[in-house]
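[SOLVED] Need 3D model of a two-part complex

Original post:
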Amino acid sequence: MKSRATNMNKWIGPCILGLVAALMVHGPASAHGPLFSPAPETIWKDGTEITLGSHFDKATGGGKKEREVETFLEVEYGLTADWQIGIEVPYSWKEDDGARSNGPGDVTLSTKVQFWQRDLPGAQYKGAAFLEVKLPTGNDDSDPRLGSGSTDVIMGLATGYESRRWYWFASGVYRANTEGSGNLEKGDRQFLNLVGGIRPVLSAYEEPDTVLMLELNWERSGPDRLDGVKVGDSGGWELFVSPVMWWTYRQYAVRAGVQIPVARSLQGSQATTDYRARLELIYHF
Amino acid sequence: MRIRLLRASIIAITLGLASATAIAGAHQYRLRVDGLACPFCAYGIEKKFNATKGVKAIKIDINTGTVTVTMEAGGALSEAQARQIVKDSGFTLGSFQTVPGPAGKAGN
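Solution:
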């Protein structure tokens, strides 16, 4: 039977790494919205959207050095013009103080319902609610862990305005984490996001289209618990400024952006985010 | 001479009837669609109308928010049908107009 100290030594690293990786929660994807936060848009009835993306995280500090590259495939389908379902399958490469692992991560199932829409000539207001369930399909015995070993629920609300020239979005997300392997329960997370955007050139329908956005992303994590005991070096909040660019042409879209930390308050000694970057290729039909 | 004249008359009448029929069958509609802001999202309208029986061509002007639907000969589109297609695409039909045919000809 493992001692409590042994159990803590095994899982203390994942508490810190998990803060970096798990903070990359953005809600169901939408090519038509922010990159690091959720959008109220849903795909049209019987439409399918496929996203192939990658995100890159680097965190240092607290005596730790962590990197993660995750590639994911996401498929979304419009049951109606206001209701879509989706699935995301990730594959990660992780490095934590010299230890490396790679493999499939936790699969996420999602659904989004657009409950409010107001259409004007050349503009739309929208509001949507979404729910995601992250399943414990990734390997939680690897070092670093590729999966959390827990089933977690992510829910949120998003609203926004889009017009030919201007965009804005606002969203709130809550992630409820359950106890995973090793009796580790990561702290619940909250996210608040504000986004503004502009389309510099009003292109015609069959021309390439570019939109520039700036996101303000605030993330907070409650303390982790190991065997029911609060982990001192866990929890806190970070604030990011995130420039994002969309480029679309007909059925194709490319989105790219970077999250730059501008403020933080973390408990104890933890690795802090140096940067995060994200790139997505999207096709819908 | 008479036979040649008769043949020419028959050809002229036939061509005239064919032209009138084609013009009478080629219905065109101009829709104003509200919420049309993003070309990437507007693709849903193109796809939905192209999948509709009888639609020959569709042209989207995103800067004016108008969608022009051209039907095949003999085809027609009702306002209710157009409203549902636009709704399923994620937008709202603002107005629906039948576009008259070439000047002086009945196109609808």
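Edit: The first helix of chain B runs from residue 2 to 25.
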